[in-house]
Specification:
Blueprint: H1 2-22, H2 25-32, E1 42-54, H3 57-63, H4 66-86, E2 90-95, E3 98-103, H5 112-126, E4 141-154, E5 162-165, H6 167-177, E6 184-187, H7 188-191, E7 199-209, E8 213-224, E9 230-232
Parallel strand pairs: 4-6
Antiparallel strand pairs: 1-3, 1-4, 2-3, 4-5, 6-8, 7-8, 8-9
Protein backbone atom coordinates (compact mmCIF):
# COMPACT_ATOMS: atom_id res chain seq x y z
CA UNK A 1 0.00 0.00 0.00
CA UNK A 2 2.84 2.37 0.88
CA UNK A 3 4.51 1.72 -2.48
CA UNK A 4 1.22 2.36 -4.29
CA UNK A 5 0.80 5.68 -2.50
CA UNK A 6 4.31 6.71 -3.51
CA UNK A 7 3.55 5.86 -7.13
CA UNK A 8 0.28 7.80 -6.94
CA UNK A 9 2.07 10.86 -5.53
CA UNK A 10 4.70 10.60 -8.27
CA UNK A 11 2.10 10.43 -11.04
CA UNK A 12 0.14 13.29 -9.47
CA UNK A 13 3.29 15.44 -9.41
CA UNK A 14 3.92 14.71 -13.09
CA UNK A 15 0.34 15.66 -13.91
CA UNK A 16 0.59 18.89 -11.92
CA UNK A 17 3.91 19.81 -13.52
CA UNK A 18 2.39 19.38 -16.98
CA UNK A 19 -0.71 21.38 -16.04
CA UNK A 20 1.29 24.26 -14.56
CA UNK A 21 3.36 24.51 -17.74
CA UNK A 22 0.15 25.26 -19.66
CA UNK A 23 -1.85 27.28 -17.13
CA UNK A 24 -0.53 29.43 -14.26
CA UNK A 25 -0.70 27.59 -10.94
CA UNK A 26 -3.12 30.04 -9.22
CA UNK A 27 -5.48 29.82 -12.21
CA UNK A 28 -5.29 26.02 -12.33
CA UNK A 29 -6.20 25.82 -8.64
CA UNK A 30 -9.31 27.93 -9.28
CA UNK A 31 -10.41 25.73 -12.17
CA UNK A 32 -9.93 22.59 -10.06
CA UNK A 33 -12.56 23.91 -7.66
CA UNK A 34 -15.13 23.77 -10.44
CA UNK A 35 -15.33 27.53 -10.84
CA UNK A 36 -16.45 28.66 -14.35
CA UNK A 37 -13.39 29.45 -16.46
CA UNK A 38 -14.54 33.01 -17.16
CA UNK A 39 -14.19 33.72 -13.44
CA UNK A 40 -10.43 33.33 -13.81
CA UNK A 41 -10.30 36.44 -15.99
CA UNK A 42 -8.72 39.47 -14.35
CA UNK A 43 -7.77 42.99 -15.42
CA UNK A 44 -4.03 43.71 -15.34
CA UNK A 45 -3.64 47.49 -15.72
CA UNK A 46 0.04 47.59 -16.68
CA UNK A 47 1.94 44.78 -18.40
CA UNK A 48 4.47 44.42 -21.21
CA UNK A 49 4.02 42.02 -24.12
CA UNK A 50 6.60 40.72 -26.59
CA UNK A 51 6.02 39.13 -30.00
CA UNK A 52 8.67 37.65 -32.25
CA UNK A 53 8.65 35.85 -35.56
CA UNK A 54 11.12 34.34 -38.02
CA UNK A 55 12.06 36.53 -41.00
CA UNK A 56 11.42 34.70 -44.28
CA UNK A 57 9.65 31.81 -42.57
CA UNK A 58 7.42 31.02 -45.58
CA UNK A 59 10.45 30.85 -47.87
CA UNK A 60 12.33 28.63 -45.42
CA UNK A 61 9.35 26.25 -45.18
CA UNK A 62 9.22 25.94 -48.97
CA UNK A 63 12.82 24.71 -49.06
CA UNK A 64 12.85 22.13 -46.26
CA UNK A 65 10.69 19.24 -45.07
CA UNK A 66 7.92 19.68 -42.48
CA UNK A 67 9.95 17.69 -39.95
CA UNK A 68 12.91 20.01 -40.47
CA UNK A 69 10.59 22.97 -39.83
CA UNK A 70 9.37 21.36 -36.60
CA UNK A 71 12.93 20.58 -35.51
CA UNK A 72 14.08 24.15 -36.22
CA UNK A 73 11.17 25.69 -34.29
CA UNK A 74 11.59 23.25 -31.40
CA UNK A 75 15.27 24.16 -31.03
CA UNK A 76 14.49 27.88 -31.10
CA UNK A 77 11.46 27.70 -28.79
CA UNK A 78 13.29 25.51 -26.28
CA UNK A 79 15.97 28.20 -26.07
CA UNK A 80 13.34 30.96 -25.74
CA UNK A 81 11.55 28.98 -23.02
CA UNK A 82 14.78 28.83 -21.04
CA UNK A 83 15.21 32.59 -21.45
CA UNK A 84 11.63 33.18 -20.29
CA UNK A 85 12.40 31.39 -17.02
CA UNK A 86 15.64 33.33 -16.63
CA UNK A 87 13.88 36.68 -17.02
CA UNK A 88 10.71 35.73 -15.13
CA UNK A 89 8.28 36.28 -17.99
CA UNK A 90 5.26 34.13 -18.84
CA UNK A 91 5.07 32.29 -22.16
CA UNK A 92 1.56 32.83 -23.53
CA UNK A 93 1.64 30.86 -26.78
CA UNK A 94 3.33 29.98 -30.04
CA UNK A 95 1.50 30.09 -33.37
CA UNK A 96 3.64 28.82 -36.23
CA UNK A 97 6.81 30.88 -36.06
CA UNK A 98 5.29 33.50 -33.74
CA UNK A 99 6.35 33.48 -30.08
CA UNK A 100 4.50 35.52 -27.44
CA UNK A 101 5.46 36.27 -23.83
CA UNK A 102 4.28 38.73 -21.19
CA UNK A 103 5.62 40.23 -17.96
CA UNK A 104 3.26 41.47 -15.28
CA UNK A 105 0.90 38.52 -15.79
CA UNK A 106 0.02 36.40 -13.86
CA UNK A 107 2.47 37.85 -11.29
CA UNK A 108 2.27 41.63 -11.13
CA UNK A 109 5.59 43.48 -11.07
CA UNK A 110 6.69 47.05 -11.63
CA UNK A 111 9.68 45.71 -13.58
CA UNK A 112 7.59 44.20 -16.39
CA UNK A 113 9.14 46.39 -19.11
CA UNK A 114 12.69 45.74 -17.83
CA UNK A 115 12.15 41.97 -17.77
CA UNK A 116 10.74 41.87 -21.29
CA UNK A 117 13.53 44.04 -22.72
CA UNK A 118 16.18 41.83 -21.10
CA UNK A 119 14.40 38.86 -22.67
CA UNK A 120 14.27 40.57 -26.08
CA UNK A 121 18.00 41.35 -26.06
CA UNK A 122 18.88 37.77 -25.18
CA UNK A 123 16.55 36.44 -27.90
CA UNK A 124 18.29 38.49 -30.59
CA UNK A 125 21.76 37.57 -29.29
CA UNK A 126 20.85 33.87 -29.25
CA UNK A 127 20.35 33.87 -33.02
CA UNK A 128 24.14 33.65 -33.36
CA UNK A 129 23.77 30.01 -32.29
CA UNK A 130 20.73 28.99 -34.38
CA UNK A 131 20.91 27.97 -38.05
CA UNK A 132 18.08 27.59 -40.54
CA UNK A 133 18.36 24.30 -42.48
CA UNK A 134 17.70 25.66 -46.01
CA UNK A 135 20.93 27.68 -46.22
CA UNK A 136 22.85 27.02 -43.00
CA UNK A 137 22.75 30.74 -42.22
CA UNK A 138 21.71 32.13 -38.86
CA UNK A 139 17.97 32.40 -38.23
CA UNK A 140 16.82 36.04 -38.21
CA UNK A 141 13.92 37.28 -36.11
CA UNK A 142 11.85 40.43 -35.65
CA UNK A 143 10.82 41.48 -32.14
CA UNK A 144 8.09 43.90 -31.06
CA UNK A 145 7.23 45.17 -27.56
CA UNK A 146 4.33 47.21 -26.17
CA UNK A 147 2.97 48.01 -22.70
CA UNK A 148 -0.56 48.62 -21.48
CA UNK A 149 -3.66 47.05 -19.97
CA UNK A 150 -4.93 43.53 -20.68
CA UNK A 151 -7.53 41.10 -19.47
CA UNK A 152 -6.00 37.69 -18.80
CA UNK A 153 -7.58 34.35 -18.00
CA UNK A 154 -9.13 31.17 -19.36
CA UNK A 155 -12.22 31.25 -21.59
CA UNK A 156 -14.26 28.26 -22.75
CA UNK A 157 -14.20 24.78 -21.25
CA UNK A 158 -12.60 22.56 -23.89
CA UNK A 159 -8.80 22.52 -24.21
CA UNK A 160 -8.45 25.43 -21.76
CA UNK A 161 -5.76 27.98 -22.53
CA UNK A 162 -4.60 31.00 -20.58
CA UNK A 163 -4.87 33.98 -22.91
CA UNK A 164 -4.48 37.76 -23.06
CA UNK A 165 -7.11 40.07 -24.51
CA UNK A 166 -7.23 43.76 -25.40
CA UNK A 167 -5.74 46.41 -27.69
CA UNK A 168 -2.37 46.06 -25.98
CA UNK A 169 -2.01 42.61 -27.55
CA UNK A 170 -2.74 43.92 -31.06
CA UNK A 171 -0.36 46.86 -30.64
CA UNK A 172 2.45 44.57 -29.44
CA UNK A 173 1.90 42.36 -32.49
CA UNK A 174 2.02 45.46 -34.73
CA UNK A 175 5.36 46.46 -33.18
CA UNK A 176 6.74 43.15 -34.43
CA UNK A 177 5.10 43.06 -37.87
CA UNK A 178 6.16 46.65 -38.64
CA UNK A 179 9.70 46.09 -37.44
CA UNK A 180 12.96 45.06 -39.11
CA UNK A 181 14.98 41.87 -39.03
CA UNK A 182 17.22 41.49 -35.99
CA UNK A 183 15.73 44.66 -34.49
CA UNK A 184 13.67 45.15 -31.34
CA UNK A 185 10.98 47.76 -31.83
CA UNK A 186 9.14 49.10 -28.81
CA UNK A 187 6.37 51.62 -28.39
CA UNK A 188 6.53 54.91 -26.55
CA UNK A 189 4.34 53.31 -23.86
CA UNK A 190 7.14 50.84 -23.08
CA UNK A 191 9.89 53.43 -23.53
CA UNK A 192 8.34 55.65 -20.87
CA UNK A 193 8.78 52.84 -18.34
CA UNK A 194 12.50 52.72 -19.14
CA UNK A 195 13.61 56.36 -19.44
CA UNK A 196 15.86 56.14 -16.37
CA UNK A 197 17.01 52.58 -17.08
CA UNK A 198 20.39 51.41 -18.45
CA UNK A 199 18.81 50.31 -21.75
CA UNK A 200 20.06 51.96 -24.95
CA UNK A 201 17.52 53.29 -27.46
CA UNK A 202 17.36 54.95 -30.83
CA UNK A 203 14.25 56.88 -31.77
CA UNK A 204 12.68 55.46 -34.93
CA UNK A 205 9.79 57.92 -35.30
CA UNK A 206 6.07 57.51 -35.79
CA UNK A 207 4.52 54.51 -37.53
CA UNK A 208 0.88 53.91 -38.47
CA UNK A 209 -0.70 50.60 -37.50
CA UNK A 210 -4.07 49.03 -38.24
CA UNK A 211 -6.96 51.42 -37.63
CA UNK A 212 -4.82 54.41 -38.69
CA UNK A 213 -3.37 54.59 -35.18
CA UNK A 214 -0.06 56.44 -34.96
CA UNK A 215 2.51 55.22 -32.43
CA UNK A 216 5.88 56.72 -31.54
CA UNK A 217 8.46 53.94 -31.58
CA UNK A 218 12.07 53.25 -30.62
CA UNK A 219 14.71 50.64 -31.40
CA UNK A 220 16.13 48.86 -28.38
CA UNK A 221 19.84 48.71 -29.23
CA UNK A 222 21.42 47.27 -26.09
CA UNK A 223 22.07 47.87 -22.42
CA UNK A 224 24.80 49.36 -20.26
CA UNK A 225 26.41 46.88 -17.88
CA UNK A 226 27.23 47.69 -14.25
CA UNK A 227 30.54 49.21 -15.34
CA UNK A 228 28.86 51.50 -17.86
CA UNK A 229 29.95 49.51 -20.92
CA UNK A 230 27.45 49.11 -23.76
CA UNK A 231 26.30 45.55 -24.52
CA UNK A 232 24.71 45.58 -27.98
CA UNK A 233 21.75 43.44 -28.98
CA UNK A 234 23.71 42.09 -31.96
CA UNK A 235 27.00 42.75 -33.76
CA UNK A 236 25.51 45.21 -36.26
CA UNK A 237 24.90 47.62 -33.38
CA UNK A 238 28.36 47.38 -31.82
CA UNK A 239 29.70 50.65 -33.26
CA UNK A 240 26.54 52.67 -32.67
CA UNK A 241 25.26 51.23 -29.41
CA UNK A 242 26.45 54.22 -27.38
CA UNK A 243 23.99 56.52 -29.17
CA UNK A 244 21.48 56.72 -26.35
CA UNK A 245 18.08 58.34 -26.32
CA UNK A 246 16.83 59.92 -23.10
Amino acid sequence: LEESMKMLDYEMKKTNDLLYRMIPKPVAKILRKGVPSVNTCEVFPDVTILFSDVVGFTRICSLITPMQVVSMLNTMYTLFDTLSEKHRVFKVETIGDAYMVVAGVPEKTKFHADNICDMALDMVRSMDHLKEPSTGNNIKIRVGVHSGMVVAGVVGHKMPRFGLYGDTVHSASAMESNGKEMHIQLSNATYEHLIDSPFIFERRGTITIKGNVEIETYWLKGKLDKDGNAQAACSQFDHQAMNTTN
